[in-house]
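Troubleshooting: if your tokenizer reports a length mismatch, compare your output against this known-good record of 496 residues.
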Amino acid sequence: MTESIPMLVTFVVYIVGMIAIGLAAYRATNNFGDYILGGRRLGSFVTALSAGASDMSGWLLMGLPGAIFLSGISESWIAIGLTVGAYLNWRIVAGRLRVHTEVNHNALTLPDYFSTRFEDKSRVLRIFSAVVILIFFTIYCASGVVAGARLFESTFGMDYHTALWAGAAATIAYTFIGGFLAISWTDTVQASLMIFALILTPVMVIIAVGGFGSSMDVIEAKNVEYLDMFKGLNWIAIVSLLGWGLGYFGQPHILARFMAADSHHVIHNARRISMTWMIFCLAGAVAVGFFGIAFFANNPHLAGSVSENGERVFIELSMLLFNPWIAGVLLSAILAAVMSTLSCQLLVCSSALTEDFYKAFLRKSASQRELVWVGRLMVLLVAIISIALASNPDNRVLGLVAYAWAGFGAAFGPVILFSVLWRGMTRNGALAGMLVGAATVLIWKQFGWFNLYEIIPGFIFGSAAIVLFSLIGGKPSEKMLTRFDEAEAEYLSEKE
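Known-good structure output:
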């Protein structure tokens, strides 16, 4: 079964299709702005699904269903926190950030935006934020490469190192060729595939068990605590799980989608589409793990590999309940989730190296063609480093990713929020917020005080540092205030 030809054919067709989209995007890429942000011309549908797909990596189809399968419905608090956080990010940040980045000299990257927004002539903001992006995203990219390798290894019985390159090659290819447009267009296809898989699979599981009522009876009979939302959780644990939602305000690969929208007016429809997609996907992922409990309770002879690794529950259900051709399509959804996130992370790293180091410090007069090719070379560089980090199947990269989300959320989240909401914020406040937010996450993670997820204190202390150092470190210049007022007026002029 692991060497099923129909599934292999399905994977190959899917990968070739993604590369073909990359080639089409190559023809539409004329300058560095096109390569990094798609020329800021994404419509609401592509903006919505690209933001969703770039967010939901392999954990959506492997990690979350696996957690639910092992512990029950109490693990779904994280899905609730993510849904609330994503909605607030769309509601508060998306439209404003689109306008502010354009008003501030058409900033293409977050470090570029921070530097211009706060008139940081020392470039400390640009350097520090770019370094944060490179460190966390290189680790993130490595984890994506590992996840892709695990999928190919377990599905086709490949050697780990062969699977490593097989999983990464296609993503590197279309990101290298087509840049942001390729990523956004492929994200749209991948998001559609993910929602199809996450709606169809739990429905078929429920049917296989004998219906919804029978499934619930089997789960209750196996362990009634699987139905308890509060099983083994105190209020700190619940707050920590909900706190994952705070991370959205600072994720560069998601914020880049807002910056690339055709205008802030498309955000309204994009939010509706993206949130609908997200709710269905998260609910489907929870349902796969939850009703998977009933299926394998009724079929214990089939539960061997799932008992060893709960994260295989979606893979095993796909193989057991569908013919190989359909299973290939469903398993391609895992590859889609991995590829969509990995490609975004590669491009954000590339843009940081190209725009915020190469152009800012080495070649200020570089042509657009030169910048595009440097950007492509940076994609290869980051990809090679990520593959090297992922080459040891027993490495600790995946453990570090546990607080990469918190690191971005605490280092950038408060700065982004205050930068688009408070005209009195200063450069010193922004720098203090980044430093305190990032440092709090790193220190809190080491000591694990109160068992509280580190993003929560990081976000709180980072926000406090922004306010304090903005108030005691001088006032923003008249030009800063004028640009802020101009951006706010534009955002409010035709507000939804």
